[in-house]
Amino acid sequence: MAGFRIVALSELKGHEMPKKSRVEELKKNMKKRGVLIKPIVVDRDTGVILDGHCRCGALMSLGRSKVAVRFVDYNSEKIEVERWGGGEMTKEEVREAGLSGRLMMPKSSKHMIKKGMRRVHISEVCEDALVPLEKL
Asked: How many CB atoms lie within 10 A of CB 93?
């Protein structure tokens, strides 16, 4: 997985609430560095955010209207979802939360991707974006 696009935040749909303390931490970091380091990960078919709710919250808090997005095929068997701390969750639950606006609690879902014989967090397969905040 490589590459990203700059997309309006208004086009995307969160499926869980961002964690307020993490949003504040990211906001300070982004303001200090002046860049968005990692793109967020979004289902290309629905616009539902899979990873990056806190980055989006930080950008909105900084008055930005766009974000770097890595679109993925959420139907791929390589992408799996589970609950942080263990437990089952389905992709349908994630999509439903995003499309309905009935957001899950922060850090409800953890998206993993099969990379060879290993499973890694979906954010680890995205190259850094390093997009200046002025462009967002």
From this structure: 16
Helix count and strand count (H, E) for the chain: 3, 9
Q: Which amino acid is at 43?
A: D
Mean pLDDT, rounded, of the chain = 94
| CATH class of the domain defined by 5-135 | alpha beta
For the chain, the first-to-last Cα distance in angstroms comes to 22
Where are the chain's structural domains?
A: 5-135
pTM of the model: 0.93
Task: List the structure tokens of 89.
Answer: 């969750």
pLDDT at 136 over 80: yes
Quick check: 110 and 94 in contact, CB under 8 A?
no
Nearest to 50 by CA among 2, 111, 97: 111
Cα four-point dihedral sign 126, 73, 23, 34 = positive
What is the reported pLDDT for 2? 52
Distance (Å, whole) CA 123 – CA 111? 8
Q: How many CB atoms lie within 10 A of CB 97?
A: 19
Q: What are phi and psi of 39, to 5 degrees?
A: -70, 160
